[in-house]
Amino acid sequence: MRALKSGRRVPGRRALVTAAALSAVALAGCAAPPPPPAPAPPPPPAAEAEPALSEQDSPLITRELVHSDIQDREVELYVARPTGTEDVEDLPVVLYLHGRDGVNPTPIPYDTLASLERLHRDGAVPPFALAVVDGGYNPYWHGDLSRVLHEELPGWLSDRGLGGPEGLPYAVAGISTGGFGALNYAADRNLAGRPVSAVAGLAPALPVTWEHMREKQAFSTEQEWVRTDPLQRLEDLGDVPVGLWVGDADPFLPGAEELAARYEHTPVLSVLPGGHDGSVFEVVGEDMIRFLAAGLPVDH
Predict the structure, then answer these.
(1) In angstroms, rounded to a whole number, what is the distance separating the alpha carbons of residues 178 and 289?
(2) Distance CA 174, CA 182 (A)
(3) Angle ∠(47,51,57) on CA atoms, nearest 5
(4) What is the pLDDT at residue 54?
């Protein structure tokens, strides 16, 4: 799959010499005429604007604070669902784990949100929601954050009519550090006898060396990282299908390739032109939503 980049032409501006200026030069006699004004420099290229959701392609999004006893603080619960699903009882849910920069302005790429709305509106996918818990800055979703997902999130979801009576997400997705956490969440669910039906990783932050991992300042020791590294836990995933989308210039590409090479249940490894940025994040939404929809429970 390749993304096409559109070019932008920036018009220059031409300085004008007025008739009054020309008359002044003629009256100056033998004096050297003043040099014409220098052409004004062209304006700098406009900064790349963050993609925005059109009103037509915007799903319903709610943000509210819930209390986490595990963290002893209020945390944000963010839910995106297709319009028209306000009264859908026990709406299936995908747990979406955000990356390093948290939930603002959005924890989910705009293209993914728009694809959820558009594909449901067009009848291409059944309804389901994407749920996000605010894990703060630079989360790798281990320790207390992992406990929040397993012990507290189900209650928050079921109280809101999401995820069935038990409030269990049927699948998990994640971007960057959230992809790291999504794989561990799926491994934990499988070991608990409650496997998810799909894992979608968008540019998962999977360093393959301690030197690379240490730069992220997420683990205090190599041993702590190794115990949590999803690449060391592939057997714990069972046979859940994993889809991966990553840029060909992403520093985490080797980790995604290693996962796909060693884990036979990786039906999707999509390597796109781009880095660990919006050139990839904002072009894979439709593929990811279709992949996650394929894992919906058959009785839904």
Answers:
(1) 16
(2) 6
(3) 160
(4) 74
